[in-house]
Write a structure and sequence with these properties.
Strand order of the largest sheet: 8-14-13-15-16-12-17-18
Structural class: alpha/beta
Helix content: 25-40%
Strand content: 15-25%
Number of helices: 15
Number of strands: 18
Shape: elongated
Radius of gyration: 26 Å
Largest sheet: 8 strands, mixed
Oligomer: single chain
Length: about 475
Amino acid sequence: MERYLRETNPSAVPPPTNIGNITAVRGSVIDAHFPQRLPHIRTLLRTGKDQQIVLEVLTQLDSQRVRAIALTPTAGLARGMPVEDTAAPLMAPVGNSILSRMFDVFGNPIDLLPPPENVEWRSVHHAPPSLSCRSTHSEVFITGIKVIDVLVPLERGGKAGLFGGAGVGKTVLLTEMIHNMVGHHHGVSLFCGIGERCREGEELYREMQDAGVLPGMVMLFGQMNELPGSRFRVGHAALTMAEYFRDDEKRDVLLLIDNIFRFIQAGSEISGLMGQMPSRLGYQPTMGTELAQLEERIANTAAGAITSIQAVYVPADDFTDPAAVHTFSHLSASIVLSRKRASEGLFPAVDPLQSSSKMLTPGIVGERHYHLAQAVRRTLTQYEDLKDIIAMLGLEQLSQEDRKVVLRARRLERFLTQPFYTTGQFSGMAGKTVSLDDALDGCERILNDEFKDYPESALYMIGAIDEAKRQEASHA
């Protein structure tokens, strides 16, 4: 009977169990001996009481020994314990029933609800779509945040990075984008937390629930208290879910990752545990390949698009750090958050001179938008150059023309601030979404000196430019 089943339906017959035994335990790194057959690389192994401890094969040491990294805590493991080869890689659940749910790296629900039904399990390891399958059409993705839509437009199906050191507002900006987009973004939103605080995930879950947008959202978390193996694979699990909605359901996907640096950091920890020689500044020698394997799966195809916005922690505000440099090369837009602007109270603390977008060309955004963005950037650059002179000699020593530039630039800086929905409870200001037309209109009118007689404070933390006129009228 078993032979008949094997010939007619090979998947119906489970492969004979391949049992080995542990030969060495060094923290999260486990060596195992398999006398029958050697498990493949990326295969999961199970061991411990009730097979609770999960390992992933990383290297084959010889014809009978493998070295694996633990994805779960290894307390209680000892030499000689049996280890079972599952003959399968790490799998992620896909299907419509995963919507509105929260998972860990193994696809287990962590929202205290029963496991979803009618799901299909797929390997988290996939090759990126081939060049022939990709779409080459460029389209702007509107966020409702003035400084981003005007100066650093995002690409539908592209990858945008929010770069910044600790405490400059990366997660706040990311959460605000979720709030603005999930409402009018008709596809699926997927949030992947890699090595970040579980408190942020819990707050995000409640906010999305209160906003009524949870039914179109999936969340995955590999928290900072989990092992590096688990944090390293959670991004691949999220992409497997995103690819299902793009390729099978033909829907657009918004993928938000917080924080891609933690993915690189987890890879660095694994590399160190495996005894590999580190490269420059202590990073793993395979960093470029590991990041590319994840990032290149985020792509536009004929079926749909995966648009990704990623927070990128910059160690010690050093943008020459290899982690930041390697991430820059994959992105279509880089939004740089500046500690100096945050200290001045200019939120979102986006540095318009360091941030850049490949979408800001006349052929994509149009002539008016392109020329206005260049005029805004030019004005802010001139102001930056004059700051030293102002600090030494004072504003009065500048020429009449330079003084006008400074006043325009200071008003532009304040107009490009915006109250956020997600910080309303702390700032006491209601959040605002601003259309691209209103944002461009405001910049144009400030550059034309329409607001030169208005105090700078009238333009601070407003939405559309006409609010400044209404505020002044009410004060008068």
